[in-house]
Design goal:
With about 450 residues, the chain is α/β, with parallel strands linked by helices. It folds into 2 domains: about 300 residues, Zn peptidases (Aminopeptidase, 3-Layer(aba) Sandwich); about 140 residues, Aminopeptidase i, Domain 2, CATH 2.30.250.10. Strands 1-2-3-13-4-14-20-16-18 form a 9-stranded mixed beta sheet, sandwiched between helices. Helix 3 links the parallel strand 1 and strand 2. The longest helix has 20 residues. The protein is globular and about 70 Å long. The relative contact order is 0.18. The model has no long low-confidence stretch (mean pLDDT about 95). Bound molecules: manganese (II) ion (2 copies). One manganese (II) ion (MN) binds next to helix 6.
Amino acid sequence: MERQNAWKKYKGKQLKEIESLAKSYKDFLNNGKTERECVKTSIAMAKDAGYKDLAEIIKKGKKLVPGDKVYAVNMGKAVALFNIGTQKLEKGINILGAHIDSPRMDVKQNPLYEDSELAYLDTHYYGGIKKYQWVAIPLAIHGVVVKKNGDVVNVVIGEDKNDPVVFISDLLIHLAADQLEKKAGKVIEGEALDIIVGSKPLEGEEKDAVKANVLKLLKKKYDMEEEDFLSAELEIVPAGDARDAGIDESMIMAYGQDDRVCAYTSLKAFLDVENVKKTACCLLVDKEEIGSVGATGMRSRFFENTLAEIINLTEEYSDIKLRRALAASRMLSSDVSAGYDPSYASCFDKKNASFLGRGIVFNKFTGSRGKSGSNDANAEYMADIRKILDEQSVSFQTAELGKVDVGGGGTIAYILSLYGMEVIDCGVAVLNMHAPWEVTSKVDIYEAKRGYEAFIRFA
Ligand code: MN
Ligand code: MN
């Protein structure tokens, strides 16, 4: 049951479409390196496609009718978009759900200190990272500082080519004999992930003059005091733009493709569909990398509450209608898959691995050690989905995340499945997943977008 490499099937027009999608995807990545930035970019795209703010519609006491398009924002970090169909909501909706948070380092609440005339920002890493990959590379600071008066100051340092970057130092090889004896997980410890942000003392200052100079610059540029770190969310991410990878330019290398590659393709597919029979929903959520917890993660009631509002605006609300709508819904949990890597062949079952270039990937189940923690999608559902994809000539493949008992992982799939709806994991194969620079194939991005669009139209 080997699946074909998708590159082989394209002619001129499609090759152009692949490139233009790849280009807009790279722009999306460059404009959205944090969940907040992704939400802003996504809302701008939605507005361009005629979507309206649900909060405004509620405030004005308006109703929703088939063909209406709305979005709801959750604390600036998650968004739910709805395209209202002609069918009753009780018959269920079609949902594409992806996450827009990515592994990184978060600046602590009391972060700034000076040691040996170097100024540092102390961090706590977010999500699963191999810590040794994050040292000695250019890093950028993205986020917000919220003042006591409520003013939100946006911060981006390290992306413009005239901007400075920041970094974490590594020990020179000449002195690293002991370090290199350590296990890879211990080579760089979590507490040692401190960012160097300065080395120049402030004139006239005696003690901690380098730190004082950094504070002076922060005051000048962002009008912030040291205490304002208490109410800041600053994320440290790799500095630099997404770029083509490979001499043949067939791949994209960029930070945060888990899971923005699925977020972008889901959103693009969703926005490209004008009118639907079954109401369609695109969910972009936060906090997946740390267990989908918190008010902006998938486990929050935000989605359920928003669907309740939608029912309330389209017909007379009742709890049973909401329950029925949820249970009758279908979802593609759009998340990335581990691309087969010949350099690490022993970690994969080659028959059940996803390959770069073979199209959108379905994971019937994820989990680890005896499928533990998995949403195991129903065969009946998978049968329907593969019929739709075959009819639309979408290239797809099926995979597991590595060999049995080698490891595992989870997604947001199991959370939606709690409502009794059909859910399956489905996304794009990635090399170097969770590394500062992850790699995807342009054809997989294209096929994912086509697959998601087919789902919205025909599921
Ligand atoms: Mn993911
Ligand atoms: Mn992940």
